[in-house]
Fold each of these.
Amino acid sequence: MSANEVIVHDDADILAAACAARLVTRLADAQAARGSASVVLTGGGTGIAILEQLRRSPARDAIDWSRLDVYWGDERFVPADDDERNEKQAREALLDHVGVDPARVHPMAPSDGEFGDDPDAASAAYAGILAANAGQDGGDVPTFDVLLLGIGGEGHVASIFPASQAASEDRRRVVAVRDSPKPPPTRISLTFPAIRAAAEVWLVTTGEAKADAVALALAGASEVRLPAAGAKGRSRTLWLLDRAAAGKLGSLTGSASQ
Ligand SMILES: O=C(O)[C@H](O)[C@@H](O)[C@H](O)[C@H](O)COP(=O)(O)O
């Protein structure tokens, strides 16, 4: 697995714009090399701000949206039209505005969908979607080109919360999460084995409230205690921070890499 690289931007707006630009380049490169690309989206304020910046960017059409597979790292298990849905927020911020192929957009099921109010069945179905799309990558999960993850103040990524069962899951690729400390309480989440199938993992976060978690994760905290520490890409693990979120990295603050 790859080493952590840290890039610090001046503020949250610059971070969102720079991350959007980085996505354009990475996904267009993958399409040039292989014909198609894949991205895993995150919920949360920073993740959605990046999608909004991508929508506004004139460079966005360097991506062939019809040859992009879109997945989610986690989802809030609420009805399809609930404003809390990560899917709904991503569609409004970006996906409704570009020419994605609906068959290549892979949301996690809502609580009023075909699995009803059964997050275990919905999680198992999502694991099936990942396996079906793993194709020639081998294994049970596609080799995602980029997997985006926001970070919680206590160090969660996707819906893997500190000291939770999901943080110790080493077999299933997708799990149901109940009693999430961050509302809503019921969620569906990729696990570490699925996250680590990605070629590149980009951890994106902003604000002082994330500074402790960022510093502890980069100092080598355990992934059960601080799940962000366990999010790694096969070839790249990139931490994209603003100055406030990087504020407790000590001598690393403002540096371009670690
Ligand atoms: O479904 C969710 O709630 C998110 O996927 C979650 O993991 C989020 O990314 C972080 O909590 C950071 O959120 P902010 O960027 O809003 O702080």
Amino acid sequence: MFPQRLDSSLAYDIAKAMMDGFNRHYQLFRSESARAKHRFETADWHGQQRAQRERIEFYDLRVKECVMRLEKEFKAGAQPMDVWQQIKLHYIGLLVNHHQPELAETFFNSVTTKILHRTHFHNDFIFVRPAVSTEYIENDEPAARPTYRAYYPTRETLLATLVRIVDNFQLQHEFEDLSRDAAYVQEAISERLALVKLRANFQIQVLSSLFFRNKGAYVVGKIINGFVELPFALPILHNKQNQLVIDAVLFGEDELQALFSFARAYFMVDMEVPSAYVQFLRSLMPRKPRNEIYNALGLAKQGKTLFYRDFLYHLKHSSDKFRIAPGIKGMVMLVFDLPSFPYVFKLIKDYYPPQKDTTREQIKGKYLLVKQHDRVGRMADTLEYSEVAFQRERFEDGLIEEIRKFAPSQLEISDRDGDGHEEVIIKHLYIERRMIPLNIYLQEAFDAGLDEADARRQIERAVVEYGNAIKDLVAANIFPGDMLWKNFGITRNGKVVFYDYDEIEYLTDCNFRRVPVPHNEEEEMSGEVWYSVGPKDVFPETFGPFLLGNDAVREVFMKHHADLLDAAFWQGHKERIQAGHVHDVFPYERDKRFVRRHASHPIT
Ligand SMILES: Nc1ncnc2c1ncn2[C@@H]1O[C@H](COP(=O)(O)OP(=O)(O)OP(=O)(O)O)[C@@H](O)[C@H]1O
């Protein structure tokens, strides 16, 4: 198959046009990300959120543009296969000194598969694995910023070094008191280093671009001493007087994981060599898959590519079968998983019960809304795939039957690739992180018996976190719609996250009402809803019977979250959002905030 000679000049022109298409994409993506700094400095929060939303669309737009150009200028789709092989080889040549080769390869795949369609293309024409290494890429241009900077403080110069680290970002806005904040950070670091001997290599490494998201900017780095590396992040916020403050210091893998969680919006970061950022971040969070790090940086297509490669690799090295996911089955989504793999696969059913007045398009719209919205750590991100092929023998028969019954339009079983093995091909799928459904988590505690202190603690933690999750969603203008326990999951770190999006609405589109007082005994005794209800009307006081059947659950809920049953709570938030308020989201515990920690003992 490998071409002996590169003799088609058209192949070179097509490869070059594709590379131009990618370069244009990355330049636009990067400048939008770089502008986040100015929006942060000028407290343009609506602008920041808009940009976060719009940037998600960039990739598909650029792919479409490039496909059109290739068809128009080169009739690319009509070129014979040997030309396509040469296109790929020329493209590899163009990648050799490129600073984002892995992204450019993915762009090539997107454009090529659009032009050649599934029936024509062969894996040889795309990048099934990377052809060009991303190791040790450096930007050698004279004014280039390195990926990270290293600082070499002593115990005595630590404070001055911390000030310098922040100063080097040249934020064009004044701090309330940078030396005070740096002293708070120094104190926190010194506590960790108190009993430690500083080794010759003691240093602080800091990624040279800030990470922007919503109302925050984050310094991300690590402290190295001997063989120990301590990841850290410094959130910088505007205070009430609109001056900058370092709000906290986060340490260690778990706190960084929470910052980079799959349930949060993507960061804006100005990066020349994204793979070097990913490599650095991976050293801070070794258990976080690379695909999720690319996602967190807004490079979702690369995340998707890497996820799929990891998935295929996992399939090759496992033998268990796909099955219907544990828990209560969805009415609109058919959910399955592979026990050995920490994700779930969701497809939209063809048929749903009458109370679900929705359509496939509407459901897709809700999933898209979540993708573009700030997920505030409370909504799982999803990857969307079309035409996914699995080996038939890896599917339990019961699962095939379930798909055949509820989503026949999504299922094809055939030997499409002609390798003599049957495949299950699913037309459209969402994939997201697997969690423990909250109803199962609570049931485990009930089963253990409420006399057990651990079980009671488990219930308390779950119910308190559940209410907190809803309150975070509310602050972010999201009404979850269906708030039953089964629609929330618990993550590895004990966070409660929402995953059932088909009834989600903007809070500002809902009408929160109290149940009217009955006019007469007949109305009062009627088991039916006797008052008129509009399509967007919500009656929070009616949530109780669905959620609080269990006494232990009820007790905790009423202690911490009784306000969720009050229409005034919801209406109040709606009005604040309508008045233009942009909520604060803290991807860390509130008691980490310096304003709380040092309220009574300010450092002087
Ligand atoms: N990320 C996940 N991790 C673990 N289990 C999940 C996940 N997402 C869904 N499930 C399981 O699949 C079930 C159905 O999923 P989901 O709630 O998304 O479907 P649905 O059809 O929208 O539900 P509903 O009938 O409440 O509208 C859940 O109750 C849960 O048991």
